[in-house]
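[Q] Does anyone have a clean structure-token version of this?
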Amino acid sequence: MLKPISVALMVATLMLSQPLGAAASALSISNWQASGSQMWRITFPGYATGLPDSQKANSGTSELHYPQSGNYATINYEEQLSPKHKLSVEAGVLGTITPATGSDSDWDYSKSQDLWYYGVFQTKGSSTFINIDVRLPSSPNTEFFYGYGYSNSHYLMTDGYYSIMDYAGTTTSLPNLNSAYSIVYQGLHAGFTGTKQLAPKLALVGSIRYSPLMLVQGHGWWNLRNLDFEHLGSGQMLDGKIGLRYSVAGHRDNALTLGYRYQQYSLYTGSENTSSSITWTNATKVQQGWYMGGDFTF
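[A] Here you go.
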């Protein structure tokens, strides 16, 4: 499994290649078989009686986990704006997240270190992302780019049950569960792309994109509790790709690419609008997997 540092090191080795092409427009269409998950966590005061507020503070924790796997249809369009500037627009759509089992965990450390509540549910949903960049050549075989990225994931929770409530083991179904949670990461980023020619028709290609500061927004609706809440915080993003590009015989500017992609979005810190004593302490989405597609120029 490729880690972010592995992607960064491989992209850094892409050098001494032939110059990048000067086609006016280019289009890439691919399928990314991504697997991963989104989780988030809040902390809040515990509920044990007789304790001073200083001991109750941040002693309660809630953590939600959503599996997020499926096939993204991705499309990337590039337009040559000038000899040294390109406009690039990439969009990825996961229309239906593969149904899987998510979880809801709660602790009240002012009472016990054990789980106070644990429930599971069926997760469905969708996800999209978009990157808009300006690209500039930084060497004969690499490009520097900067731009804006946006990621939106929506989860629907149904068919749930809980097995722990108030530290007591039980099995209680939640047939009316129909709750939802959405999370958006957006902000400015920068990165590099690179190409290393391995053979006349075969090249190693890669890119890495990073944002040190993103706006992170979450919105939840818990139907069984009639609870509508919002999260707001700051975070970061890392997106890396590595692949092999094979030029189609007789079509120098058309190619097939097989590679691996890794995306990670994470939260620094945040808050919840229902109470000033609640802190949004974690939100991490990781997706990774193989992609395959075609590149066309015209």
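[Q] Thanks! Anything notable?
[A] The first helix runs from residue 4 to 12.
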